Write a sequence for this structure.
């Protein structure tokens, strides 16, 4: 039994069942039956984690006995039972039943002893913090919430910035009534809870002045993939209700947990700025809170700085370790003192119940035009017909098994959401109500689209895809959706390393459960094209750009970056961090840029810096660019990004790889340029690999091995240049064959030479995925690793295992014959 539980045992006298009010520091998580899950968890953190630096605002809670005391003093227990039976028998609707029961509470009178207990506890809290009639948050905490199989997220009410005894008692009465909202009645009924055996505790907690700063929600796990090495933080300006309810699109930060222990590192993988169009602040004239528009400066700024992101992430890890499970945590920053606080924590209830040994993937074909996009919730894809609903009151107009489209959801929407096939919203982040409930219901959802209710319409056939990474897409029409289920426990153990090719950081976490040996190829071009979009030289020479429209576009994309080149470094480092995190500490081979000049020209601002070439495939590409005056400043940014990735963020598993390195002198010049930019081979454990995709790489493999730590065979280019066949030519398609005897000779030769020189050698082409016999050839040739697309991983590993077994059998038979 852990220390916090031991303390709970010692407090049996303090937290006696007959108590009406207890302070948070008198309860632990063992006291759910006394003060409900939410309040028990607050007490647990104050008692068990205060010494570890976790700051939780003080307060007190009414007990389950106080609830029943209120119920019985007003003689409403029997009336509640009668009303619920009438609902169950169909004599009354859900809405009628909920309204009638809530009125019983709202008209009820406070027992004198309970009023006195609440008044005394509030007076003591005000004295403790030194503020008369201190502002408090008043939250409901049911005795059947935050359980492993039922979160009860948002089922009861919360009231913020309540000040004074009279207003506090009013808020408490409304909390009691909220135990019987329509959504709460419906949820308990579905989950099988007896309505007359669930009590409600009220938590009264000192307000954090986040109205003058920001607040939000964080998870100690990736909410969509279940990747357990990530802390996910959402943040918005003002009080936290807007984030929880999905009223705003918040900032999103991702932090890699294993590297948080090193105080010299800043392992922030991602920082996405949300639009944060509203913020909830303190009201006036009897209104506790109100929403106001944010300023342009607030929308353009991130709510949290790096050190605050790191501090919250470390707290998330401490809390997760203490509870022994992934956690869903609410935090707030006090705008007066600048201090961070944890205001709630509860176990995460979705991925903790998933079968970790099963990986289900979805493949979509025949996609229609893209209609809208947002954040993906879940990892599934479905097709169906849309039904747009403006408010939860219009639930009667919703057709079961339709795809729900609306602006945002709150707990009143839960009964309707259960009838949906998928959900699309205008507003909200990954920790919004729509996202949380969709996950719990197992529904794919695309949230925070910004325009779904504007561009979509009822009766429209669409495909909702959450299977393509952290972005969710809505396509027109009914697509073909194929599902594959992998049993991760049944993969064979083999000597050949099977790695995966990954380019899209947004989709990396989908594959974290695959038992890979690392990433064999991460293409820089994908990150540059999708996350950066700007030619690096256009950032270096921003002030000299001639095209004013291009200059304006770059200025808009780089808002917040006074130093324009740092935009490239920052985005590139963060993009690769997501990939490296997926396999850490296994190697992630990062190929430096290999755009052709025509592809570089397509980047924003690229046309001013790229020459026109007749044959870009064999032109100014790969290594030749890195030391050229035309691009050396751009290559410097690439190196700075890798240096930041490895040395500041801590992803030392990143191995840079040089593409299209034609000669030995070119290898020397590239390594010299890298060293000039802080990447010296051998320092800080830095290895450098080279692509083997030119015949000269094979012919001079022994010499190249003096400059590089490993080879990665690019079978497409090697086949093209060995056979003299344009790989993109339809007329010569029959001649392009990676299994041609000449190509196989090249591969066999470089494997033998590399091994003789003490170098590793792998392959990162598509051929092993497409041709099982080619994988067999590679294993026979003794290749160290085969890197394939994730959806081919299972089949290639099986081919390699069979090939190793055949090879072993052949050796055994040969030995027996001798």
């Amino acid at each position: 039994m852990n220390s916090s539980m031991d303390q709970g045992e010692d407090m049996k006298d303090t937290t006696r069942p007959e108590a009406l009010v207890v302070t948070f520091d008198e309860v632990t998580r063992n006291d759910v039956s006394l003060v409900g899950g939410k309040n028990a968890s607050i007490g647990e953190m104050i008692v068990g984690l205060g010494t570890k630096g976790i700051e939780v605002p003080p307060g007190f809670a009414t007990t389950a006995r106080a609830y029943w005391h209120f119920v019985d003093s007003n003689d409403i227990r029997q009336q509640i039972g009668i009303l619920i039976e009438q609902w169950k028998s169909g004599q009354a609707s859900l809405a009628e039943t909920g309204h009638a029961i809530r009125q019983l509470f709202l008209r009820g009178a406070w027992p004198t002893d309970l009023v006195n207990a609440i008044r005394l506890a509030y007076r003591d809290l005000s004295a403790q913090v030194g503020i008369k009639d201190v502002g408090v948050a008043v939250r409901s905490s049911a005795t059947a919430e935050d359980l492993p199989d039922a979160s009860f997220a948002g089922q009861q009410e919360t009231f913020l910035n309540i000040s004074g005894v009279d207003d506090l008692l009013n808020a408490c009465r409304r909390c009691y009534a909220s135990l019987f909202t329509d959504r709460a009645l419906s949820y308990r009924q579905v989950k099988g809870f007896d309505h007359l055996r669930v009590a409600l505790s009220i938590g009264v907690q000192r307000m954090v002045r986040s109205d003058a700063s920001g607040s939000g929600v964080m998870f100690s796990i990736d909410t969509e993939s279940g990747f357990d090495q990530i802390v996910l933080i959402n943040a918005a300006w003002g009080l936290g209700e807007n984030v929880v309810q999905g009223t705003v699109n918040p900032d999103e930060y991702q932090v890699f947990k294993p590297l948080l222990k090193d105080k010299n590192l800043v392992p922030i993988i991602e920082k996405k700025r949300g639009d944060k169009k509203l913020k909830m602040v303190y009201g006036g004239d009897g209104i506790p809170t109100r929403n106001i528009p944010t300023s342009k400066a607030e929308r353009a700024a991130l709510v949290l700085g790096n050190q605050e992101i790191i501090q919250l992430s470390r707290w998330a890890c401490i809390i997760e370790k203490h509870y022994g499970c992934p956690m869903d945590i609410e935090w707030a920053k006090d705008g007066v003192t600048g201090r961070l606080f944890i205001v709630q924590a509860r176990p995460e209830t979705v991925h903790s119940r998933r079968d970790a040994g099963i990986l289900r993937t979805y493949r979509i074909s025949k996609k229609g035009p893209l209609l809208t996009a947002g954040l993906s919730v879940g990892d599934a894809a479905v097709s169906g017909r849309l039904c747009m609903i403006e408010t939860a009151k219009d639930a009667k107009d919703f057709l079961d098994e339709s795809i729900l489209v609306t602006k945002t959801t709150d707990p009143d929407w839960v009964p309707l959401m259960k009838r949906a096939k998928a959900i699309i919203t205008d507003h909200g982040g990954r920790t919004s109500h729509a996202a949380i409930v969709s996950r719990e219901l197992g529904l794919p959802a695309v949230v925070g689209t910004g325009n779904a209710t504007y561009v979509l319409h009822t009766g429209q056939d669409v495909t909702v895809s959450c299977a393509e990474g952290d972005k969710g897409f809505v396509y027109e029409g009914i697509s073909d959706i194929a599902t594959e289920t992998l049993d991760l426990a049944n993969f064979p153990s083999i000597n050949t390393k099977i790695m995966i090719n990954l380019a899209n950081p947004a989709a990396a976490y989908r594959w974290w459960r695959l038992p890979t040996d690392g990433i064999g190829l991460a293409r820089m071009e994908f990150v540059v094209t999708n996350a950066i979009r700007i030619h690096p030289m256009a950032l270096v020479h921003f002030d000299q750009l001639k095209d004013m429209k291009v200059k304006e576009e770059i200025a808009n994309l780089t808002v917040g970056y006074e130093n324009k080149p740092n935009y490239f470094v920052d985005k590139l480092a963060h993009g690769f961090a997501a990939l490296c995190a997926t396999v850490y500490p296994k190697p992630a081979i990062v190929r430096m840029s290999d755009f052709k000049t025509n592809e570089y020209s397509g980047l924003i601002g690229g046309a001013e810096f790229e020459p026109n070439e007749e044959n870009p495939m064999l032109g100014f590409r790969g290594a030749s660019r890195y030391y050229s005056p035309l691009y050396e400043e751009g290559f410097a940014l690439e190196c700075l990004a890798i240096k930041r990735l490895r040395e500041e963020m801590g992803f030392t598993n990143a191995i840079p790889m040089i593409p299209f390195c034609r000669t030995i002198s070119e290898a020397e010049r590239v390594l010299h340029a890298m060293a000039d930019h802080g990447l010296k081979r051998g320092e800080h454990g830095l290895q450098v690999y080279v692509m083997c995709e030119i015949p000269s790489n094979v012919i001079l493999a022994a010499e190249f091995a003096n400059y590089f730590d490993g080879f990665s065979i690019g079978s497409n280019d090697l086949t093209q240049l060995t056979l003299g066949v344009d790989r993109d030519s339809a007329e010569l398609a029959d001649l392009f064959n990676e299994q041609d005897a000449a190509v196989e000779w090249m591969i066999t030769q470089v494997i033998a030479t590399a091994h003789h020189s003490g170098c590793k050698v792998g392959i990162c082409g598509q051929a092993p995925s497409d041709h099982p016999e080619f994988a067999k050839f590679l294993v026979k040739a003794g290749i160290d690793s085969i890197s394939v697309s994730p959806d081919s991983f299972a089949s290639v590993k099986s081919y390699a295992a069979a090939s190793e077994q055949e090879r072993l059998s052949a050796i055994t038979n040969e030995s027996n014959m001798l």
